[in-house]
Structure formats: C-alpha cells, structure tokens
Automatic annotation (TrEMBL):
<dbReference type="Pfam" id="PF04551">
    <property type="entry name" value="GcpE"/>
</dbReference>
<keyword id="KW-0560">Oxidoreductase</keyword>
<dbReference type="GO" id="GO:0019288">
    <property type="term" value="P:isopentenyl diphosphate biosynthetic process, methylerythritol 4-phosphate pathway"/>
</dbReference>
<dbReference type="InterPro" id="IPR004588">
    <property type="entry name" value="IspG_bac-typ"/>
</dbReference>
<dbReference type="GO" id="GO:0005506">
    <property type="term" value="F:iron ion binding"/>
</dbReference>
<comment type="function">
    <text>Converts 2C-methyl-D-erythritol 2,4-cyclodiphosphate (ME-2,4cPP) into 1-hydroxy-2-methyl-2-(E)-butenyl 4-diphosphate.</text>
</comment>
<dbReference type="GO" id="GO:0051539">
    <property type="term" value="F:4 iron, 4 sulfur cluster binding"/>
</dbReference>
<protein>
    <recommendedName>
        <fullName>4-hydroxy-3-methylbut-2-en-1-yl diphosphate synthase (flavodoxin)</fullName>
        <ecNumber>1.17.7.3</ecNumber>
    </recommendedName>
</protein>
<dbReference type="InterPro" id="IPR045854">
    <property type="entry name" value="NO2/SO3_Rdtase_4Fe4S_sf"/>
</dbReference>
<dbReference type="InterPro" id="IPR016425">
    <property type="entry name" value="IspG_bac"/>
</dbReference>
<dbReference type="InterPro" id="IPR011005">
    <property type="entry name" value="Dihydropteroate_synth-like_sf"/>
</dbReference>
<comment type="similarity">
    <text>Belongs to the IspG family.</text>
</comment>
<feature type="binding site">
    <location>
        <position position="293"/>
    </location>
    <ligand>
        <name>[4Fe-4S] cluster</name>
    </ligand>
</feature>
<comment type="pathway">
    <text>Isoprenoid biosynthesis; isopentenyl diphosphate biosynthesis via DXP pathway; isopentenyl diphosphate from 1-deoxy-D-xylulose 5-phosphate: step 5/6.</text>
</comment>
<feature type="binding site">
    <location>
        <position position="332"/>
    </location>
    <ligand>
        <name>[4Fe-4S] cluster</name>
    </ligand>
</feature>
<dbReference type="InterPro" id="IPR058578">
    <property type="entry name" value="IspG_TIM"/>
</dbReference>
<keyword id="KW-0408">Iron</keyword>
Length: 412
C-alpha cells in the first residue's frame, strides 16, 4: 500500500496523494548558458523526465530562469544554496519550485521565511532538502560507541561491536535529519504555507532508508526520494535501485531522482526501470533479454542492446523479449508483446503470443522493430521503424560448429 500523503503541485505535475510517482533529474550545464541548458532539458523530456532542476549558484543563473521556462514544457525547479536572494529572483522569474536546505541559508530561518512568503504569494512549491552531509558530525555518544574499548577485570580488552556501533550511528544521524526536516516544516506551517515536499538524502543507502522511514511515520508531506552522490552509472544505479526500491516497496515515496555521475539522460531510464519493476509505473518498454550462455547461436548481447537503445524514447507500455535459444526463448517471447527467440543463426519472431515468421540474423533488427512499431501510436512508430525499414544489422555470427565472431554479411 502506498503511504497516504497530501498532494502538492509543481507546475502542472501533481506530487503525492494518488498522483503517479514522478521522475526527476537535474541539468549539468551552466544554467546561465540558456541554449545548452534548454537543449539538455529537451533531451531529458524526450526520454521521459517529468520535472527538471537547475543549479542557481549566482544571480546570472537566477536571471535566466524566465527565458528557460518559456522554452520548455516540464516544470522547472531552482536549486538554491546560501543566498536567499537567488531564490527570491528565481520565484520572480516564474520558477515552479525552489529546492532549499534551510540549514545552509545565510541568516537561516529569517531567509527561509522570506522565500516561503514569496513562494506562497506566487503559488510556487518548495522542496526542503536535508542532506546527511549538512548535519553536524557525529554526536559525542555515537563517537564513543564507535571506538569504545573497555578494560575487563581480568586485564583483557572488550571492544564494542562495530556493526552495532554503525547501526547506532546511522539511527542517530537519521533521527537528526528527520528532526531538522520537521523543524523546517513547522517554520513553513507557521506562515500557513504547505506546498512542500521533503528529501532526506545520504550517500549511505541505509542511512537514507532509515531517515525516510522515520519521516514517513511522522509526517504526511510528500517525499522526494534520492540517494545522493550515489556514484557512476553502475554503482549509482545499483545503490539507487536498492535504497529507493526498499522504500518504494514499503509504499514510501512520491517522486524520485536517480543521481548518477553520468549524463542526466541516463538517469531517467534507470528511474523508470525501478518503478516498472515494482509495478508502480508502466510507462515505456519492459525489456526481457537473456544473458546468453554456451548454448547461444545468435549474438544476443549485441541485438538486445541495439533493440533496447532504439526503443529508449518509447513511452507506450510494451513488453519486448530478445532471447538466445530454445531453452527459454519461445516461452519468454510468447509472453511478451514482441519477442525474438534465437536458434542456429535464425530467429523466430513472436507477436502477441503468435509466431509471425522466422528470419536470418541480418534481419533481426528490422523484424523486431517492425512488429514493435505495429503496436505503437503513429508518432512513436515512425521513430522506431522509419519508412523503408531498418537497413543496419547488429551483432556477429555465432555458431558452435563453424567457430564464432564471423561478421554477419550485410543485408542486400
Ligand atoms: S535462453 Fe538459451 S542462450 Fe539464453 S541464457 Fe538461457 S539457455 Fe542460454
């Protein structure tokens, strides 16, 4: 059961309540470079990003918010640290939401109240973002528990259990993050402002999970999920899938970002994959492919990667399978909307459980994408399967009898 939260609006996107869990990202361009920023936002929109955040480190960045807003069609969030004037200017420029960490605003509560009043007047939402990095270092008790060594009467040393000490540290830190967030919320409520969501991020998965769990038991404001500074494409995706997945499976979370040290466009498919896997969103392609093994006689890895890449912009829910051999291939392919089950240098194409035809390796891409396109709305179909069909081929020829890695002959 999804946790019941109140609903807020960020531009035309609802967050919380019964709204779908929204996927966000953040640009990596210098915001004042309007052309590059708008181009990156358009690329993010193309792959399904629903809310985008931009950094606003200086006044030049705040002053172009209005221009950026005019040229994009998803809600825009301004990321503000230290200087409240940047938040006030972003709000004047028409931003849809400001993200602040009240703990690092100059003049603290006084600055936050100025931003809250401006946001309230203009109907702008606010994310209160508490990061574990901005919470004081370990308190004294936790520090002592971490390194405690006691001399027993018999002269031997007794050391504290490191795992237990880490658990206590984690719980202390999470509790301090939640206490801070609730305090900041109370400042907003005193000004009768409620368009708030909250993030409690940490680069340590278990700390973030602990903080979000605790907050969700004590507040009904919507929650933005994220594991901050999670790492590169692989490490960040794994940490995010684990941390966000645990919370989402418990019904916690109304919007999320997968933070990666990668192009922001790479964050969106990972986020949707997490949501699809938990059956919380069904947008886009559910992709099934086998890892291949010593039984395989097609280059399933290359074909699967190429098919997935070519379907990355599809938003219509559809299941596609690319399988290497007869062991699991026909079953998975039959269950998918479109499937390819490989055999000896050939593949059987399935559509909605029925065999359509058998094609040689150099026609795999054409055959799979043609069938997928036939199930999509016209606008998406023309991108997936352009007029004239797919001329390219994917992969190398594999066969146990003749050796492997022979190039596939180009299509006539
Ligand atoms: S489907 Fe066939 S090729 Fe793929 S992993 Fe399974 S047994 Fe191996």
């Amino acid at each position: 059961m999804r946790r019941k939260t109140r609903q807020i609006h960020v531009g035309n996107v609802a967050i919380g309540g019964d709204a779908p869990i929204a996927v966000q990202s953040m640009t990596t361009t210098y915001t004042r470079d309007v052309e590059s920023t708008v181009a990156q936002i358009h690329r993010l929109q193309d792959v399904g990003c629903e809310i985008v955040r931009v950094a606003v480190p200086e006044m030049e960045d705040a002053l172009v918010i209005g221009e950026i807003k005019k040229r994009i069609s998803i809600p825009l969030v301004a990321d503000i640290h230290y200087n409240p004037e940047l938040g006030l200017e972003a709000i004047r420029q028409g931003v849809d939401k400001v993200r602040i960490n009240p703990g690092n605003l100059l003049l603290g509560r006084k600055s936050m109240e100025k931003i809250v009043l401006a946001a309230k007047e203009r109907g702008v939402a606010m994310r209160i973002g508490v990061n574990s990095g901005s919470i004081d270092a370990l308190d004294k008790v936790a520090q002592m528990q971490r390194v405690q060594v006691r001399l027993r009467d018999d002269g031997t040393l007794e050391r504290s259990d490191p795992a237990e000490a880490r658990r206590i540290e984690r719980e202390n830190l999470a509790e301090r993050m939640v206490t801070r967030a609730l305090e900041y919320i109370s400042w907003c409520e005193e000004l009768d402002y409620h368009e708030i969501d909250v993030s409690l991020k940490s680069s340590t998965v278990l700390t973030a999970v602990e903080a979000y769990r605790r907050f969700s038991q004590r507040s009904d404001y919507p929650i933005h999920l994220g594991i901050t500074e999670a790492g590169t494409l692989v490490t960040g995706s794994v940490k995010s899938a684990l941390g966000l997945g645990l919370l989402l499976a418990e019904g916690i979370g109304d919007t999320l970002r997968v933070s990666l040290s990668a192009e922001p466009e790479e964050e969106i498919p990972v986020a949707f994959e997490i949501l699809r896997s938990l059956e919380l969103r069904n947008r886009g392609v559910t992709f099934v492919s086998c890892p291949s093994c010593g039984r395989v006689e097609i280059d399933v890895i290359s074909v699967a990667n190429e098919v997935e890449k070519r379907l990355s912009k599809v938003q219509t829910p559809i299941q596609v399978a690319v399988m290497g051999c007869v062991v699991n291939g026909p079953g998975e392919s039959r269950d998918a909307d479109v499937g390819l089950a490989g055999g000896k240098g050939k593949g059987v194409i399935f559509r909605k459980g029925q065999v359509v035809k058998t094609v040689p390796e150099d026609q795999f891409l054409d055959a799979v994408l043609k069938e997928v396109a036939s199930l999509l709305p016209a606008a998406e179909a023309s991108v997936v399967y352009p007029e004239g069909g797919i001329k390219e081929v994917a992969g190398t020829h594999r066969t146990r009898d003749e050796g492997m890695n022979l190039p596939i002959l180009p299509r006539a």
